[in-house]
Automatic annotation (TrEMBL), chains A, B:
InterPro entries per record: CoA-bd, NAD(P)-bd_dom_sf, Rex_actinobacterial-type, Rex_DNA-bd_C_dom, Tscrpt_rep_Rex, WH-like_DNA-bd_sf, WH_DNA-bd_sf
HAMAP family referenced in this protein's UniProt entry, alphabetically: Rex
Protein name, UniProt field: Redox-sensing transcriptional repressor Rex
Family named by the database record: Belongs to the transcriptional regulatory Rex family.
Protein's gene: rex
Subunit note: Homodimer.
Gene Ontology BP annotations: negative regulation of DNA-templated transcription; response to redox state
GO CC terms of this entry: cytoplasm
Reported function: Modulates transcription in response to changes in cellular NADH/NAD(+) redox state.
Signal peptide start and end residues: none
Compartment list: Cytoplasm
């Protein structure tokens, strides 16, 4: 699938296309033009055509893209046709909020385990998940073939959690802690950091 | 300040540079090379030099960048030398988690008001903020000169909140609801969506 290197910016737009395409399919819409997509998603139609052209020629001139086919292709590219188990460390407000997203993560991606180091958090119920102690992390992750780890602990604990994730064999980490974590090069880390989001938004204020 | 158009990718990296530079300053480090920055931040040093060159020539060959000067410049570019008040709608787990980030948002950016439409949320205390009813949103935002609005309500309510923000005069919106919102072209919207974060991370799994 990864015959060419796709830029991160493109990879980040694909889930956004996917969400709207899923909305269209629910309304039984069969085809969509790059103009429609651009208008709805506030993106340049030429940009959208370029993004989708990375993955082969899906659009037909004057007709547009076949919604079902495009959904299938994007799901394949993003590997959402695979089962992907996710584990989360840090059962505070943010961790609880993210665990509640399981409802949105239809497809085959799911948070299957939540961990915390605080005794008062362990045993708490978040929807159908019970917060487990850190001592069970490696075993649980390996038993559940967890591939993505989410960090929602304070900055001071994030590196230790990252080390535990690496030890247990996760392949990618989504880090919400406001700190840079060090991991081996083969582990992909994305940062989802509220402070940097707000600071980059400030740039666009007049 | 905005004499040239800077790409969103660059704007998103600036807060990441800033965080590390602040760490360096706390350790009394005076200069830093693009190699050091690149190693610490997992970015290509050439990319970093290119990013920083957008804003003028700050680096000295063989010496590197002056940490204090670079912090000052990036803060100016991101407008963090201004006071920026922020309001948040949706006092659920995510809203509470974000309100707790006020501690990290040193500088002059601060969440000054939290709103919710649910009677059981109104009046609750989140740190030093009291959750207010939606009926007070426009007045509070105008009185506090709020410039950025954060949406942490369910998808079904997000557009209505966005409309209220626009009516009250905010200039930019950070939307955590998993839905595309429609606002006038002059309002900048950033999406911080957990689902798309996870889906784009899945692409990098082998």
């Amino acid at each position: 699938m990864k015959t060419m290197k796709i830029s991160e910016a493109v990879v980040r737009r694909l889930p956004i296309y996917l969400r709207y395409l899923n909305e269209l399919r629910m309304k039984d819409v069969q085809t969509v033009s790059s103009q429609d997509l651009g208008h709805k998603l506030d993106l340049n139609p030429a940009q959208i055509r370029k993004d989708l052209a990375y993955f082969g020629e899906f659009g037909k001139k004057g007709i547009g893209y076949d919604v079902g086919y495009l959904i299938e292709k994007i799901r394949q590219i993003l590997k959402l046709d695979q089962y992907i188990n996710v584990a989360l460390v840090g059962a505070g407000n943010l961790g609880r909020a993210l665990s509640n997203y399981n409802a949105y993560l239809k497809d085959n991606m799911k948070i299957v385990a939540v961990f915390d180091s605080m005794p008062d958090k362990i045993g708490q119920q978040i929807n159908n998940l019970t917060v487990k102690p850190m001592s069970e992390l490696v075993e649980t992750i390996q038993a559940n073939k967890v591939r993505i780890g989410i960090i929602t602990v304070p900055a001071s604990e994030a590196q230790k959690v990252a080390d535990d994730f690496v030890k247990s064999g996760v392949e990618a980490i989504l880090n919400f802690a406001p700190i840079i974590i060090r991991v081996p090069a083969e582990i992909r880390v994305h940062y989802a950091d509220f402070t940097t989001e707000l600071q980059s938004l400030a740039y666009y204020l007049d």
